[in-house]
User: What shape does this take?
Amino acid sequence: MVQVNQSYLSLQKNYLFTEIAQKVRAYKAANPELRVISLGIGDVTKPLVPAVIEALHAAVEDMGAAAGFHGYGPEQGYAFLREAVVDEYARLGVKLDADEVFIGDGAKSDIGNFQELFDEKAVIAVTDPVYPVYVDSNAMSGRAGLPCEQGRFDRLVYLPCVRENGFVPDFPAKAPDVLYLCSPNNPTGTTLDRAALTAWVDYARKNGMLILYDAAYEAYITEKDIPHSIFEIEGAREVAVEFRSYSKIAGFTGLRCSATIVPQDLRISDGKGGDTDLNSLWRRRQCTKYNGCPYIVQKAAQAVHTEAGRAQVMDQVRGYLANATAIRSALSAQGFEVYGGVNAPYIWLRTPEGTTSWGFFDLLLNKAQLVCTPGAGFGASGEGYVRLTAFGTPEDTAEAISRLRSL
Amino acid sequence: MVQVNQSYLSLQKNYLFTEIAQKVRAYKAANPELRVISLGIGDVTKPLVPAVIEALHAAVEDMGAAAGFHGYGPEQGYAFLREAVVDEYARLGVKLDADEVFIGDGAKSDIGNFQELFDEKAVIAVTDPVYPVYVDSNAMSGRAGLPCEQGRFDRLVYLPCVRENGFVPDFPAKAPDVLYLCSPNNPTGTTLDRAALTAWVDYARKNGMLILYDAAYEAYITEKDIPHSIFEIEGAREVAVEFRSYSKIAGFTGLRCSATIVPQDLRISDGKGGDTDLNSLWRRRQCTKYNGCPYIVQKAAQAVHTEAGRAQVMDQVRGYLANATAIRSALSAQGFEVYGGVNAPYIWLRTPEGTTSWGFFDLLLNKAQLVCTPGAGFGASGEGYVRLTAFGTPEDTAEAISRLRSL
Assistant: This one.
């Protein structure tokens, strides 16, 4: 009888958000008369913008006629979209080649799968709190080791991001092989400014460390000194892969599209004294286990890069940011300690002294019928915080704020 | 510096179809005045049927309005589609639970990723010739061992399917842990009839072997005694996972949707003397590294299961089968030895004595501007054969037949 991949047995039974969903379902079943508002999972609520809808309809028409039908596409994505991504980067002053852009079905898939390219013995570092996919995907491949105290794994390197260090990770004593960075950060909503990111790129270059940079929330940056891409930093092409998503900029959470940038300059050790390029390895992976993002979805993503599309989606982003400002202000006014919410759709709330993050989750659910995400679910250093998201409708956000005020 | 997953270095540089595409591109560049017709890669050419197009437009409308907008969907797929799949199986007399159905973005992804659940030491068997994804995905995880003679890997078990055994694999001396089966077969176009499949299910039950059953081409079955699902065989629920695709039945190669069936009864060893269920493991994998198939694509897939949709797509399938019959007849009339093409869109042509499969590929390309797929690309036992596909337009198929006649 085939034996299970032992690493799967070391995982927590549920993916964090599945666990929260189960708790909320149980609460709703027990309290059918109460309306629960979610500030929990980071899902958008605004419909797709007109430019995207128009592009989708047109692409559907293509698919219904022999002349416009598109079957298997290039696994790496259509050139029209990869070139639109290259142009988008050019607006940031970053020069890319279209061969460095890989279109995927979402940053979660791409980030989750990317670790496959590395040796099982690679030392992986994550910030703490952390988006669970970085940890779980490595754990599934045996790279995280065994569970130890506080829900951690004994082979991962955790870099705490807490109020004491301004949510900027300190350099570890010994350089890991790979570091996942996310800015604007999920879950804390905080950012790495140009100086901090430059320091990390320099560290990576000096120590031969690879950075997997998750830029899923870059559209929410409002302040000037925060890079929208790690490739704005000199030398980053030698040490970083960047993951972009259409989910949060354009409401593609249910449409699924991402762009992953793997520079041609990136080399990793071949374990035999030489090196090998990461771009080809990722292409080989995608060609073997993936069959490309749907044509109609890629056409929709292309529309996000047009003048009309960009204006429409950024209008939605500003709407979500207005929610963030409102939640943040209300909580501050009530004396809560809050972080994030300025360059991100996430507010990271410090729970009152003596209340754990799951305790605060229960309190918000039971007292105010609000769903948050307990910080502890994102890692040991998330204990004492909860994450609130600004993706609700303005009405729900207003109602949530009013309930928060009456806590 | 992070070290590469050594298993990647043991792979052939290119995925088979990428290599063929490169050769064809070079030929076209050198001969721009000649029209090349592809009977190579198994991509469909007919546009999406009206029922699917209608469902797509309606779903796009949903996504453009707050009331109908769908963000993150369930990773396992929407209930509406999983239930439609359950109903489809009921038509075959197979009873499934909707929790056993996982909607994915294509059988290639699902089959490619599924092996992650198994221990690195698992003994994997494949039929030979074989769809390269089964081999390469295991090779990437170190389960195939090292390359050895004839493009094989030294840790995989190869079960030849050749004319001498009627393309039905013989039982191996020692039972492997996992066997990939594909019927109707890609690339040979041959099938396992009820007796042959029953024998394999019995073998699996007796030996504790898991069968990964690829049913991507079941819609092409025209003969009575060929099962459309492995679950038509008694006891298969204890030993088999089945992969279904919308690509070949409904032209979804560029739309991307699949259904993978993981029965609740399936248990694999936990390596500690007990067992663990595969359904939960696959759910955990998908929840961590996948974010669900796009809502609009799932609505399109649902339309395939309606009365109108089914009639329309089966009409296309019959059209492709008519191509297969025509190609098969023409080749037979010319004295070629041909297999497949009756319950499958693939014709498996025996190359003339003394001509290798790549040699015949070159001959067809240079003499007739036809692209086939060399059998050797599918494995050592594919040497001496080439695969021709019936997915062309009727016009291209007629032209290809006329060129074949003048060879």
User: Anything to note?
Assistant: The two ends of chain A are 55 Å apart (CA to CA). Chain A touches chain B through 86 residues (CB under 8 Å). Chain A has a mean pLDDT of 96. Chain A has 13 helices and 15 strands.
